[in-house]
Amino acid sequence: MHGEIAVNAAPCGPDRYHGVWRPPPGWFAIGHGSPLARRWHRKTPAVDPEMKVMALEPQVYGDFETIVLQERPLIDVRAPVEFEKGAFRNACNLPLMGDEERHRVGKCYKEYGRVAAIALGHRLVSGEQRRERVQAWLCHLKHHPDSLLYCFRGGLRSQLVQQWVRDAQGRAPLRLQGGYKAFRNYLLGRLAPEAQVSLPVILGGFTGAGKTKILRQFQHSVDLEQIANHRGSAFGQQVSPQPTQIQFENDLAYALIQHRHRRYRFLLLEDEGNHVGKRFIPRPLVTYFQGGAFVFVEAPLQERIDNTFNEYVLESQAAYREAFGEQGLGVWADYVRRAMGKLRKRLGNQRCSHMLAIFESAFAAQRQSADKSSHRHWIEKLLVEYYDPMYQYQVRKKRQEAVFRGSPAEVLEFLQYHYPDTERVSLDAVNQTTPSVESQ
Questions:
Q1: DSSP string of 276-304?
Q2: From CA 308, how far away is CA 64, in angstroms rounded?
Q3: Short-list 235, 242, 234, 232, CA closest to 205
Q4: d(C-alpha 166, C-alpha 261), whole Å
Q5: Residue 213 neighbours by CB distance under 10 Å
Q6: What is the CATH number of domain 47-187?
Q7: Domain-by-domain residue ranges, the chain?
Q8: How far apart are the first and last CA of the chain?
Q9: d(Cα 362, Cα 305) in Å, to the nearest integer?
Q10: Do the strands 293-297 and 404-406 form a parallel or antiparallel pair, or are they unpaired?
């Protein structure tokens, strides 16, 4: 030990530290009891060599573009509360510390400094807990040996996991250079308009016209609804929840980076506006998308009713039954009622109540005879009285003329001829619009 002294000091004023004595920076205590009864030391204590994580040779990986293009599996060693706010595609949360452990270590860091916080972390994650967590990392690496690991900044947590894994199997995975923060900043930079090389083509049309079916027939499309896990309408909620905003932005960046790498000349998107469900597209990117060519899909009302019936009733009920079993049909009905209730402000009480009554009649008929066809009646009112007027208003507001209007088959042929997924931009054009990592 170095600089050992006996401390005999009065507590600091309660107006600053509430009567709790705090050591000067760089000092730490060994032992138990009150601060005045403990021995205080300067510099680094003689501890288990495993705590000397900073002695590790750098083993980092910073080629973020390759991570995206290869969709490399990732081990997120942050606490669950951090992971739930947003992570990266193919990331598995195998934390070094749980939420409560992280909270205690963070509090210790603020009060007593880095060395004391590291010591506390080692005490909290030791023995059987440590063995279980090491085993979880080893099991993941057995199935995904090319995994990379990261903590928030690529610091102590990920370095310590590296060392423990190396101790257990003789080798360790690489960690992300700069951790979550650096990779996240890289992805955000790829959402900027100046990072795009393709010309956007927007596919518009009334609900039920079959836009998504057309979109998915082209390799140069990006499906915003799929990324947001939402059909982009009042009744667009899926059984599973939407990703967090951070997760949505990360996944959208992945899609745009992969699209850019293939050097498509055009980027085909569905007309979604500023948001998809509760997930917002960055405004500069929305402006860039809306500056592209606008193609309008037209379809007869009956065809649109059929398409919407298949999505909102047949496919949706099947998904709810799969998720909730025998209770699925009732859960689905409650979801429809809630969605209709949200339209009351726009439709008014009378029209909304009338639509809800039509739904209840159709649902009762389905319960009694298994006949689902009556659901088409409320779907027709939903299209004619809500979706169509709202979309007409949005199109007029944008004041954007369509370069082509036609049936789904005609639009498909038009896109294949004028905006094919076979045309590419030059490699020089891609390189000229590549933001540097240092600029993020």
A1: ETTEEPPHHHHHHHHTSEEEEE---HHHH
A2: 40
A3: 232
A4: 35
A5: 12
A6: 3.40.250.10
A7: 47-187, 198-440
A8: 44
A9: 15
A10: parallel
Amino acid identity of 138?
L
Tokens 């021995």 appear where? 39
Residue 230: CB partners within 8 Å, gap ≥ 6?
236, 237, 238, 242, 276, 277, 278, 279
Query: How many residues make up the chain in this entry?
Result: 440
Tokens 């939903």 sit at which residue?
Answer: 382
* 303 vs 132: CA distance, rounded Å: 56
Relative to beta strand 39-42, strand 27-30 is antiparallel
pTM of the model: 0.84
DSSP 72: -
Is residue 204 a contact partner of residue 297, using CB atoms and an 8 Å limit? yes
Catalytic (active-site) positions: 151
Burial (CB count <10 Å: 0-12, 13-18, 19+), residue 80:
middle
Q: Exposure string (b/e) for 249-258, b if CB count within 10 Å is 16 or more?
A: bbbbbbbbbe
* Residue indicated by tokens 């083993």: 59
- Token pair belonging to 359: 């739904």
Give, for all 440 residues of the chain, the pLDDT tens digit. 333 333 333 333 334 434 445 555 555 555 555 554 455 544 444 444 444 444 445 589 999 999 999 999 999 999 999 999 999 999 999 999 999 999 999 999 999 998 998 899 999 999 999 999 999 999 999 999 999 999 999 888 999 999 999 999 999 999 999 999 999 999 999 999 999 999 999 999 999 999 999 999 999 999 999 999 998 888 888 999 999 999 999 999 999 999 999 999 999 999 988 999 999 999 999 999 999 999 999 999 999 999 999 999 999 999 999 999 999 999 999 999 999 999 988 899 999 999 999 999 999 999 999 999 999 999 999 999 999 999 998 888 876 789 999 999 999 999 999 999 999 888 777 777 655 444 44
Q: Alpha-carbon distance 252 to 269, whole Å?
A: 12
Largest CA distance in the chain: 88
Task: Read off the amino acid at residue 277.
Answer: G
CA R_g for the chain = 29
Three-state SS sequence of 214-266: HHCCCCCECCHHHHHCECCCCCCECCCCCCCHHHHHHHHHHHHHHHHHCCECE
